[in-house]
Amino acid sequence: MKLELVQVPASDVDRSLAFYRDGLGFALDVDVTPMEGMRVVQLTPPGSACSILLGTGMGEASSMPPGTQKALHLVVADIQAARQELVDRGVEVAEVVDVGGGVLYAWFSDPDGNSLALQEMPWRTGESF
């Protein structure tokens, strides 16, 4: 099994699309309106096999209230560089925190309050990243 798509609830799909594409650097894979009242937007973080889904009119898939998706982890090889890249793109990212065992986090939120974290783990860097 592979996890390949995670729903991120959004109150304004265009605003969220801009945040994830322009602020975080995610690739826009799909932005379609297959029928009136339905919009499907899929974006993928650089180097990831798992994408996020934004949209409207998708039944249960778009029924989560905006801001309720919490703690999506973006695992990076160099948290300081990744954090600085996001800050340079205008994203407000908290300072890096060592939570023990060399695991580092830097938290931030999207425009609706869905929370994300940059995470660096020492055993998932270099050749093993």
List the helices and strands and how they pair.
Elements: E1 5-7, H1 13-23, E2 27-35, E3 38-44, E4 51-56, E5 72-75, H2 79-88, E6 97-100, E7 103-109, E8 115-120
Parallel strand pairs: 1-4, 5-8
Antiparallel strand pairs: 2-3, 3-4, 6-7, 7-8
> Into which percentage range does the β-strand content fall?
35-45%
Proportion of residues in helical segments:
10-25%
- Spatial separation of the terminal alpha carbons: 20 Å
Largest sheet, strands/sense/barrel = 4 strands, mixed
Number of strands: 8
Q: Evaluate the radius of gyration.
A: 15 Å
The main sheet orders its strands as: 1-4-3-2
Would you kindly provide a written description of the structure presented here, covering whatever features stand out?
The structure is a single chain. The protein has 129 residues and is an alpha/beta fold. Helix content is 16%, strand content 36%. The chain is built from 2 helices and 8 strands, in the order E-H-E-E-E-E-H-E-E-E. The chain has a 4-stranded mixed β-sheet with strand order 1-4-3-2, covered by helices on one side. It has a 4-stranded mixed β-sheet with strand order 5-8-7-6, covered by helices on one side. The radius of gyration is 15 Å and the shape is elongated. The protein starts with a strand and ends in a 9-residue tail after the last strand.
